[in-house]
Amino acid sequence: MLDFTNQVAFITGAGSGIGRATALAFAKAGARIVVAEVNETSGQETATLIRESGREALSVTCDVANPSQIDTAIQQTVEAYGRLDIAINNAGIGGRFARLLDQTPDDFNEIMAVNVGGVFHGMQAQIRQMLKQPENGHSDRGKIVNVSSVAGVRGMPMGAPYSASKHAVIGLTKTAALEYAQRNIRINAVCPVYTHSAMVDHLLTMAPNMEERMRRVIPVGRLGHPDDIAQAILWLCSDENVFCTGQAIQMDGGMTAG
Ligand SMILES: NC(=O)c1ccc[n+]([C@@H]2O[C@H](COP(=O)([O-])OP(=O)(O)OC[C@H]3O[C@@H](n4cnc5c(N)ncnc54)[C@H](O)[C@@H]3O)[C@@H](O)[C@H]2O)c1
């Protein structure tokens, strides 16, 4: 089992779905967790679940689209736990399901502010902090994972702004990984396929047979579970990963292999 004892993990959007599963998995492996969530109630629920399991957690209310709120959340992390070892930029929104011509400038701007702005401002604040701190004894200063999507490597009919935002997350990931490789910060992205969470469970209600239609395009024959994605994120952030950086790992049950 991967061991994150004494490491500090900051996770955005950790009040639900993939973010919550990732927070619980890091906590189980020994990390101290900072839950950064725009939804104060769900963020506190995740922190409570972690504390009830005997681990340490802090919940901070943070809108990732707002750079000063991210800066404050990172400051609160360092005040509480002294350093930042791991950052997961997971918070995201799906936006409206509509063809390109029916998407408005507001639809586009809102998705970009959260899904791209959140990763851009998040990495700025996180890397600034990681560069200030000594290496952790395992030859790395920090690990960052950004949550993109299969829609970050493929087009997504009815979701042009979302697909554009997730392509941008991969561009940010690769560029930051190249810029900070020699400073011993490893930066990767994960690209989930349809995964059971509030975001996808909402899509499942939009048409009959929706889950069956999603399942049919995933070679392993099922949708993802948040824990499937969490396990990949944990490995990318582990001491076992010293050489993988700048990658967008497809967590898609084989979908993009075809
Ligand atoms: N579920 C999927 O099928 C799937 C597939 C590919 C990618 N993703 C990506 O995974 C990530 C997590 O999504 P999920 O499926 O767990 O969805 P989810 O809706 O269950 O969780 C998203 C969380 O992000 C939070 N959030 C939203 N806007 C925020 C903001 N401005 N600031 C801080 N927090 C904010 C929400 O409150 C929520 O708790 C997203 O980036 C999403 O795009 C999900």
From TrEMBL:
EC supergroup of this enzyme: oxidoreductase
EC number: 1.1.1.47
Any GO MF annotation of the entry: glucose 1-dehydrogenase [NAD(P)+] activity
Domain of life: Bacteria
PROSITE patterns in the record: ADH_SHORT
Pfam families tied to this protein: adh_short_C2 (PF13561)
Keyword set includes GTP-binding: no
Keywords of the record: Oxidoreductase
Family membership noted in the UniProt record: Belongs to the short-chain dehydrogenases/reductases (SDR) family.
NCBIfam families for the chain: PRK07231.1
PANTHER family: 3-OXOACYL-[ACYL-CARRIER-PROTEIN] REDUCTASE, SHORT-CHAIN DEHYDROGENASES/REDUCTASES FAMILY MEMBER
Protein name: Glucose 1-dehydrogenase
Organism: Spirosoma liriopis
